[in-house]
Amino acid sequence: MKSCNFLLTTFIPLLWAPAVLAHPVEVLDDLPPPPQRRYQACEPIGTYTTDWFLSTPLPDYHGIFNNTALFYTRGLTSRAISHATAHGLTTIWAVWPCYLYNHLNTTDNPMRCIHNDATKRTMFYENMSRAFAKKANGSVVVMHGADDYDKPPMDGIWGRVELPTMKDGDGVSSVGKIKDDGSEHKVVWRRKSEKVDHIAEEVKQERIEMKKRDVELGAQMACLRASEYDWYDNIDW
Question: Domain limits at 203?
Answer without folding.
Answer: 45-232
